[in-house]
Write a structure and sequence with these properties.
CATH architecture: Alpha-Beta Complex
Protein name: SUF system NifU family Fe-S cluster assembly protein
Helix content: 40-55%
Largest sheet: 3 strands, antiparallel
Radius of gyration: 15 Å
Order of helices and strands: HEEEHHH
Number of strands: 3
Pfam families: NifU_N (PF01592)
Strand order of the largest sheet: 1-2-3
CATH topology: Sufe protein. Chain: A
InterPro entries: NIF_FeS_clus_asmbl_NifU_N (IPR002871)
Family: Belongs to the NifU family.
Structural class: alpha+beta
Shape: globular
GO biological process, one term: iron-sulfur cluster assembly
Oligomer: single chain
Number of helices: 4
Length: 148
C-alpha cells in the first residue's frame, strides 16, 4: 500500500468519525447567532449557532442534515472556531476556502488538525460546496455581527 492510499484511508476514517460522532451537534441555550444555510444542489442544510462574547466565539453548535462531507465539516469547523476571535475565525475560513480551491495557503498560524482530512474533497468539485457550507454560514453570521 502506498503512502498516498494510506493517507486517503486515514482521511476517510477521520471524516466518517466526525460524521458518525459529530462534535457540537445540538442547540445552544440563551442568546446566540442563528445562521441558516442550505446547498440546493444536494439538499444539505445547516443551522449554525454561534455564541459571541467580547469579540470571541465562546461556543458553537449546529443542527442540520446532509451528506457525510457537509456534516463532518460542520463538526470540524465548530471545534476549530471555539475560543477564536471573530477575525481569526474569518481568517481560518479563508484558509479553508483556499485549501478547498486547491490554492496555496498559510497553515502556520492555525493547527488545522482534522480539517486537513477534507483536502481530498478537492478531487470532487461537486462536493466542495458540501465541505464549505458550514464555513460559509459562519462567515455570513460573523460578517452580519461585525456590521452591527
Amino acid at each position: 500500500m502506498s503512502l498516498h492510499s494510506n493517507l486517503d484511508t486515514l482521511y476517510r476514517q477521520v471524516i466518517m468519525d466526525h460524521y458518525k460522532n459529530p462534535r457540537n451537534r445540538g442547540d445552544l441555550e440563551g442568546d446566540a447567532l442563528h445562521i441558516n444555510m442550505n446547498n440546493p444542489t444536494c439538499g444539505d442544510r445547516i443551522q449554525l449557532q454561534l455564541k459571541v462574547d467580547d469579540n470571541k466565539i465562546s461556543d458553537a453548535k449546529f443542527v442540520g442534515e446532509g451528506c457525510s462531507i457537509s456534516l463532518s465539516s460542520a463538526s470540524m469547523m465548530t471545534e476549530a472556531v471555539k475560543g477564536q476571535t471573530l477575525e481569526d475565525a474569518l481568517e481560518m475560513s479563508d484558509i479553508f476556502s483556499k485549501m478547498m480551491q486547491g490554492q496555496d495557503y498559510d497553515d502556520e498560524k492555525f493547527e488545522l488538525g482534522d480539517i486537513e482530512a477534507l483536502q481530498g474533497v478537492t478531487k470532487f468539485p461537486a462536493r466542495i460546496k458540501c465541505a464549505t457550507l458550514a464555513w460559509k454560514a459562519m462567515e455570513k453570521g460573523l460578517n452580519e455581527e461585525e456590521d452591527k
